[in-house]
Amino acid sequence: MTVVVTGGTGFTGTYLLRSMLSRDVGDVAVLSRDEPGKAHARLLSALEALGAPSAVLDAARRRVSTVQADIGHPGLNLPDDRFQALADSMTELWHCAADTTLQADPARLRRANLDGTRNVLALAETAAPGTRVRHLSTAFVAGRRREGLILEGDLDGSAGFENAYEQSKYHAEVAVRDWSCRTGRSVLVLRPSLMIPDGPVPAGAPSHQLASLVSLLARMRAVHRRPGAAPMTVRLPGHPDARLNMVQVGYAAEAMLDASTRMAAPPAEGTVTTLHLVHPQDTSAEHLWRLAAEHVPEFRFTLGPPPADPNFFERFAAKYFQPFLPFAWHRRSYDRSRLLSLLPGGREPGPPNLDFLFAEFLPTRFERRPVATAERLSPR
């Protein structure tokens, strides 16, 4: 029994493997572009950094092998006999690998997220019937649907997308559905929202997507260099009632495995089951601005109409925050009833802890001063 995992050395994949190895899942083969020794060492280092128990680390040494492969190439860039041997040994596939860079070149994202998915599905098609297939997608395949309830079974690209990443993941899901229909094989599609760490990310652990946003705030602070000055208002385009769904990666990993176990018996042939791995409560933009004001007292962030006379930092934000700004218009929510029906006891995540996200990258250098609650502006 071998579980094959793509993206096992990435942010989500590392947490997923940590949870897998705490359960009796048998042998695990992690596909990586790195040579096997280097990939295995990196994985062990990440698990140690995350504080994995000794039993998990021992299981990683004994039961996890790494296979040098490239999902961007047909046949995963493996010799034919090695590809066949991997397929023959596989009883379960977790496709977690993806390029999550929001501002990446669309062609690059398509190669990684769409072509990569097709190439991995070819491995699953070569495996024995009944091999379980789990595809890690994203709740953001909903694209530019900024309001309303997104159902777990929805897959509609008619509203367009906020960025090429969302579009590539949408087309990957379409490819999964087409493959399932053509082959008669069932797939479990898992759609997490924005995944955040459970706590401060230690050195040696993979970085997360919000790290780049908080690093940009650190750059703004470094440019400001006016200790003791009154906070400068930075007007960002967006709806003052915007909200974003963020879910802890540790909870998401456990929920994925619990749901997968409950889905272990193959459903009807050609069935695609989609689950939203989202938090039951959205995080409001206002809450984020309050946290930013506490940790970055040089600025006061607001949401409203795009400023007609942007100051230096508003121009900075318009340029460097551009991949994130569209989400400041979102007020949608996600259905998760199907997920809850598969979790033991309706397991729920705790409230997201966002304080450390700012504190980790923005250590206070100057004396803090009281900052007013973020101003709320009327949208156009």
TrEMBL record:
Pfam families linked:
NAD_binding_4
> Residues in domain Thioester reductase (TE)?
5-255
In terms of domain of life, where is this protein from? Bacteria
Instruction: Fetch the InterPro entries from UniProt.
Output: FAR_NAD-bd, Lipid_A_modif_metabolic_enz, NAD(P)-bd_dom_sf
Q: Where is the signal peptide?
A: none
Q: What is this protein called?
A: Thioester reductase (TE) domain-containing protein
Report the source organism.
Actinoallomurus iriomotensis
